[in-house]
Design a protein that fits this description.
- With about 425 residues, the chain is of the alpha/beta class.
- About 40% of the residues lie in helices and about 20% in strands.
- The protein is built from 13 helices and 13 strands.
- The strands form 2 sheets. Strands 3-4-5-6-2-1-7 form a 7-stranded mixed beta sheet. A 6-stranded mixed beta sheet has the order 9-10-8-11-12-13, sandwiched between helices.
- α10 links the parallel β12 and β13.
- α6 (about 155-175) runs antiparallel to α7 and α6 (about 155-175) packs antiparallel against α13.
- It is elongated, with a radius of gyration of 30 Å.
């Protein structure tokens, strides 16, 4: 069995963990640990069973209340450094978990056959993922995005990618003695995990680039008041004079903790005012690009005799290119209860609100979330790519798997370490 060489006399031995078994799909792994940190590590993480004084020792490897694996511990006397072999009986996932546990305890992980097959070593792991998460954290203004980037910085996405690298490296080095059914299962598992990461990308990308929410509609429909309500503060001067907002007003907001970028646009109407016409043109351009549009109307216009000629209810000429949008009737606080019932019955797909009192805003926020990339179940706890670079590497890896394992390995390694060509 291989042994760890001690350092020169008088020097302080380093804590080191060296895998002794070759990569493979099997569930037996042997890891040798050495250095002054061995005894403290075993005291915290190893619970011995059976009679004392008999070797190898058998017991449980734990992290707090978490049982990681049942292990055999064989002690050696090699110079001044404590040397112990840990015999694991779990899967590759257990080996990865023990590796992280040792690294957290200050052990340097030696480059092993797994890492060599993947072209990835702990010493060279310049973690591009967590660097990108740190950038996202600093730019975050919403609770959910802050929690999302904190989870990434804790290593969730990195560990998932390293797990894929380990599994693919195991397949690359698997010999003919490996059961074909097991090889097929691992191969299909890699494909499923790559696809799942790609499928979750829209959620993560929306954390990095908040969806744009445009408020459009005619003058004096209450857009500025609605924007102030969504912002939670007065960002726009609101009043009864038509056309008070002549330009774009943009603000980062959080809806139920999720980040959005809200834009209040100039009122859409026919006008001879050059400044207002320029603002309307910019409003139309932005509304075409925004992921979500709220088309606001004054609820009172629905009950006016000339409602067919009302700007509030008449579709704008460019409405067909605005994409998906929600019709919102504002100022229902000025309607009678029977009018609200009639409007709700006639406009079943619309949302009725009062930007002044806040009535109906819970439903409006629910619709906005459903129309965004946040509409699915919360995936903050699941590994999720959140930059275009990450998604590009994952999609490349997915396309190349399983026909070209080497290309898949290279793409995942670039995802974790970063691509020097992107600098």
């Amino acid at each position: 069995m291989a042994r760890t060489e001690t350092q020169a006399s008088g020097s302080t031995p380093a804590n080191r963990a060296s895998p002794l078994t070759a990569p493979g799909i099997g569930g037996v792994h042997l890891i040798q640990i050495s250095g002054p940190g061995v005894e403290p590590f075993l005291k915290v993480h190893f619970r011995r069973r059976g009679l004392r004084g008999r070797e190898p020792f058998f017991g449980d490897l734990v992290a707090g209340d978490e049982l990681i694996d049942e292990v055999l511990v064989q002690e050696h006397e090699v110079g001044v450094a404590a040397v112990v072999d840990l015999g694991l009986h779990g899967s590759e996932a257990v080996r990865r978990r023990v590796k992280l546990l040792l690294q957290d305890a200050g052990f340097e992980w030696a480059t092993d056959l797994h890492d060599a097959a993947m072209g990835l070593s702990s010493a060279s792991a310049a973690n591009a993922i967590e660097i990108e998460a740190d950038v996202g954290m600093q730019a975050s203004w919403a609770e959910q995005s802050t929690l999302f980037f904190a989870a990434v910085m804790a290593g969730g996405l990195r560990r998932e990618c390293e797990g894929l690298l380990c599994d693919i490296g195991s397949l690359v080095s698997a010999n003919e003695s490996q059961p074909s059914a097991l090889v097929h299962e691992v191969r299909e598992g890699v494909a499923t995990r790559l696809q799942s990461l790609c499928d979750r990308a829209p959620f993560g990308l929306a954390m990095t680039r908040a969806p744009v929410l445009a408020v459009i509609g005619p003058v004096n429909a209450g857009k500025s008041t609605l924007v102030n309500r969504l912002c939670g503060q007065e960002r726009v001067i609101a009043g009864e004079e038509p056309g008070m907002t002549r330009d774009l007003v943009e603000a980062p907001i959080a809806i139920r903790g999720y980040p959005f970028r809200l834009v209040d646009t100039a009122g859409l109407r026919e006008t001879q005012d050059a400044m207002e016409r320029a603002g309307i043109a910019r409003a139309v351009t932005l509304a075409k690009k925004a992921e979500i549009k709220l088309e606001l109307a004054d609820a009172r216009d629905f009950f006016r005799e000339d409602r067919l000629r009302s700007e509030s209810l008449r579709p704008h000429a460019d409405r067909e290119v605005f994409g998906r949008q929600l019709r919102v009737f504002n100022k229902i606080d000025l309607l009678e209860p029977k009018e609200i019932r009639a409007l709700r019955k006639d406009q079943a797909d619309a949302v009725l609100v009062s930007a002044k009192t806040g009535e109906g805003f819970s439903k409006l926020e629910q619709w906005i979330l459903f129309a965004s990339a946040f509409r699915g179940p919360a995936v903050r706890e699941f590994p999720t790519p959140f930059t275009s670079r990450q998604l590009r590497e994952l999609e490349f890896a997915r396309r190349k798997w399983p026909q070209d394992p080497a290309a898949t390995l290279a793409a995942l390694a670039r995802l974790v370490q970063g691509d020097p060509n992107d600098q």
